[in-house]
Amino acid sequence: DELTQQEEGGLELDPEAAQWLERVRGLASKTFELPSSLRAELRPYQLEGFHWLCRLAELGLGACLADDMGLGKTLQILALLLLRADQGAALVVAPTSVCANWAIEARRFAPGLEVLEYNGDARDELLDQVRQAPAGKLLVCSYALLQQDQAKLAELDFACAVLDEAQFIKNAQSLRAQAAFRIRAGLRIAATGTPVENHAADLWSIFHFLNPGLLGDFADFNRRFVKPIEREQAQSPEQLLRRVIQPYVLRRLKRDVLKELPPLTELRHDVELSRDETLRYAMLRKQIHDKLLTPHGKRENKIEVLAEITRLRRFCCHPRLVFPDAERESSKVQAFLELVEELRENSHRALVFSQFVDFLSLVREQLDERGVSYEYLDGSTPQAKRQERVDSFQNGNASLFLISLKAGGFGLNLTAADYVIHLDPWWNPAVEAQATDRAHRIGQERRVTVYRLITKHTIEESILGLHEKKRTLARSLLEDSAKAARVSTDELLRLLSPDVT
After folding, report:
1. Straight-line distance from the first to the last Cα atom of the chain, in angstroms, rounded to the nearest whole number
2. Within 10 Å of residue 176's Cβ, how many Cβ atoms?
3. Cα–Cα distance between 63 and 245 in angstroms, integer?
C-alpha cells in the first residue's frame, strides 16, 4: 500500500521495483488450494494463516506466525509444508520436549510427508536420506542437536526451515541462535506465541533468521529502536519498528478467533505468612538489602542481584528452600493443600506449575502423605516418560499434574484439566501464559480457572507490578502503541526497599 501511495505521489520506480510491486499486488488477495492429502479441516482463521504463509512463500520472504498459544500454528505450517513438499526437504527445529509432538502431528495430519526424527546414533544416515531424495522429507530436530551438529546441518539446502518456539533464539549472541543463522533454506518460518518476551531486542534475532538485513545490524538496531523505546522517548521509533515488521508477522489472539473457547478466569489467591515466617522473611530481606545496597554504593552485577532476589522468592514458597532448619510446614504449601481438597471435593482436576523443582519435591511429599494422586514432570523426565504421563493424566488417572514451569510451558496438550495453579510468579507473564495454555486451548470444553498463589507483603507482590510492563511490550510492537522496557538492575534493587516488602 505504501509503495502504491509513493508511486501515485510521483515516486519513480525502476523496472525491477515496478515488477515486484505488480507481483505483490497480484498475490495480495490470492488464495491457495489446500493439499488434498491434508487430513484435517482448518478453521477459518487457520485457513487465512495458511494463505498468508503461502503468499510470503511465493515472494521468498520469511514469515513469523505469532498466533496466541493453542491456536494450531503447527497445523497451519504442516499444510504449507505439504503443499511445497515437491520442492525439497523441510527442517523443523523445536525444543526437545516438542519434537515428538511435531512428529506425531505430521504423521497424523500430513501423511504425505516422510518424517525423520533427528536423534540417536544414526543421525548421519538420516542426513544421507535427505541428500539423496529430499522431496517430501521432514527432518525434525531439537535446538540442542542443531547446535551440536550445526556444521553437518549447514551443509544441506532445505526448501523450508521452521523454528518452533522461536523465542529460543532471542539472544543473538547465543550458540543456539548462531547455529540457527547457519541454516540454508529457501523459505524460513518462525512460530512463536511470544515473539517479544522481555524487550524489543528479542525481535532482532528472530528477524535476522527470517529476513537477514531487514532490521540492519544489531548495533544500529539497538541505537535506532531498543534504546529510545527503553528510555520511553517519542513514539516514532516504536511506530516505525512496528511498521517495518508488520508485513512479516501474523498475530491472532484466542479471544478474537476462538469464540467457542470456554472462558478463562484468573484469580489471585493470597497467602499470609505465619509469625515465624514473617520474622525470618524480614531478616532475610534486610540481610540481602544491606548486602546489595552498601554505604559504599549499590551492586551493579545483575546476575548477583538476581541470585539474591531469587533467595527471597524461594523463601516465599517454603522457608526450607533457604533455611534447611526451618519448620516442615509452609504457609504456601498449606494454602495449596486446602485449595486441592476443595477442588477434589468438586471433581476438578488441575495443572500445578512451579519454577523451583526442589519446591515441587516438598509439595510431592505432602501429597504422598495425604494419598493424593498426581503425575509429575520436570526437565529430567525422559522424553518417552513425558508422553506416558501426559496420556495417563488425560485418561483420568490422577487429579493433579505437577510440572516445572520451564519443562512444561510448551508442547503439552492437557485439556483434561479445568484448573491451573501457579505456585509462584515468574518474572515474565508470557511464560506463565504459555503454561496456562496447556489447558486453555483447542479441545477444552470447560471453563478454565487459574489461581496464582501470591504471598502477601513480599517480593512476590512486587513481581506482579513488573508483569504489566512485560505485557505492554508485546502489545506495543505487535498490537498497539503502549510503552515497555527491559527490567534494569535499578528496578530489581528497588524491589528490596522496605516500602515494597
Report:
1. 52
2. 18
3. 10
- Cα–Cα distance for residue pair 214/190, rounded to 1 Å: 15
pTM of the model: 0.72
Cα 323 to Cα 319: distance, rounded to the nearest angstrom: 6
The three cell numbers of residue 353 are 506449575
C-alpha 332/C-alpha 121 separation (Å) is 45
Type of residue at 377 = L
Number of H helices, E strands in the chain: 23, 15
In a 13 Å sphere around the CA of 126, the CA atoms on its Cβ side amount to: 21
What's the rounded Cα separation, in Å, for the pair 343 and 487?
36
- The tally of CA atoms less than 13 A away on the side-chain side of residue 267 is 12
Per-residue pLDDT reduced to its tens digit, 304-349: 888 888 999 999 999 999 999 888 889 999 999 999 999 999 999 9
d(CA 237, CA 227): 10
Q: Which three cell numbers stand for residue 123?
A: 543421525
Interval 347-359: pLDDT, tens:
999 999 999 999 9
Q: For residue 61, what are the CA distances in angstroms to 185, 235, 245, 344, 365?
A: 11, 27, 12, 51, 52
Q: Phi, psi (5° rounding) for residue 126?
A: -65, -40
Coil, helix or strand at residue 258: coil
> Coil, strand or helix: which one is 174?
coil
Give exposure, 11-40, as e/b (b: 16+ Cβ within 10 Å): eeeeeeeeeeeeebeebeeeebebbeebee
- Of 179, 183, 182, whose CA–CA distance to 168 is shortest? 179
